[in-house]
Amino acid sequence: MKIFVADTYEELSRQAAEDAITLMRSIKQPLVCPASGDTPAGLYKYFTTKKELAVSHWSFVGLDEWVGMDGNDEGSCLFHLKNQLFGPLHISQEKICFFNGRANDLDKECDNIEKFIQQHGTIDLAILGIGLNGHIGMNEPGTSPALRSHVTELDPLTKKTAQKYFKEQTEITTGITLGLATLMEAKHIFLLISGAHKANIVKRILEEEASAQLPGTLLRSHPGLTIYLDAGAAALIQPRTA
Ligand code: PGA
Fold first, then answer.
1. What is the DSSP letter of 64?
2. Which domains can be identified in the chain, with CATH numbers?
3. pTM above 0.85, yes or no
């Protein structure tokens, strides 16, 4: 596990983006799993400002989606990624596989996404954030790490915090997500965490015993994990840890 501590969110985003670009250069046809959410938005912005960045050979697999929503719903995970990443980088539709949270058959959505990953071998880089409750994607506290893609009830804190993605109060109860078993097979994981409000969860995932009750702790055993923190998020950890 590597930990990079930046002074600012901008520096965190720039470093993670540059590291991702360097990594992608060494892979012929990379498969990237980009989380939505506020934290990776700066990294995606940085990608879009790199004029010489060639991404037409990259493919993308969605991390998660709110059940009942697809990319046309404002506030859906795909909606945000279309605006922040896929649109500005002109990624063609066939290079993207994303959960359709409006589908009648959500198990089939899970099968499709796992098949897409299999066809590409594995995820080369998962760009992840973490929830205040330690969730990864929508793998909420208590989720079995043996699960692959699945439908899940959302934790009360997730439902509350997620309101920031919507213009109006929106009822969400359920999510569809890549499982920890799928994510742990990714070759590289970049876990981005920003802001003083996340300082406590950073301390907990680094210092507590690894447990399904705190999914972020399980990532520590991944050999290709890099954690990117800004000063706010790193505020409660010992300098030696960083
Ligand atoms: P955030 O979400 O980046 O918007 O804080 C992270 C998460 O809940 O996984």
1. E
2. 2-229 (3.40.50.1360)
3. yes
